[in-house]
Amino acid sequence: MPAVFIHGVPDTAALWEPVRSHLTRRDAVALDLPGFATPVPEGFDATKEAYTDWIIDRLVELGTRP
């Protein structure tokens, strides 16, 4: 199961690069939330619930369990 890093607002996944560079594991993933260094998906309403759903979808895609 990969280690997943999620930034806060208003940061980006780049925040985690110094941490990830010290890890020996190669399955660490840092996600960019929609609208933070990535485009906002069409129809994405940027609510807390929408971000939660987006994160859960990414975790499922990575084969993890939220």
Can you tag this structure with a few keywords?
single chain; 66 residues; alpha+beta; globular
Q: SSE layout and pairings?
A:
Layout: E1 4-6, H1 17-20, E2 29-31, H2 48-61
Parallel strand pairs: 1-2
Task: Describe it.
By secondary structure, this protein is an alpha+beta fold. The chain contains two helices and two strands. It has one domain (4-61). A two-stranded parallel sheet has the order 1-2. The model has no long low-confidence stretch (mean pLDDT 94).
Question: What's this entry about, in short?
Answer:
The chain has 2 helices and 2 strands; from the N terminus they run E-H-E-H. The protein is of the alpha+beta class and 66 residues long.
- Measured by DSSP, the beta-strand proportion falls in 5-15%
The tally of beta strands, per DSSP, is: 2
Q: Please state the structural category.
A: alpha+beta
How helix-rich are the residues, as a percent range? 25-40%
How many individual helices?
A: 2
Q: What is the first-to-last residue Cα distance?
A: 11 Å
Task: Please state the CA-atom Rg, rounded to the nearest Å.
Answer: 12 Å
Main sheet summary:
2 strands, parallel
Which outline best applies? globular
> Topology as H/E string?
EHEH
Oligomer: single chain
pLDDT < 50 runs, ≥5 residues: none
> In total, how many domains does the architecture comprise?
1
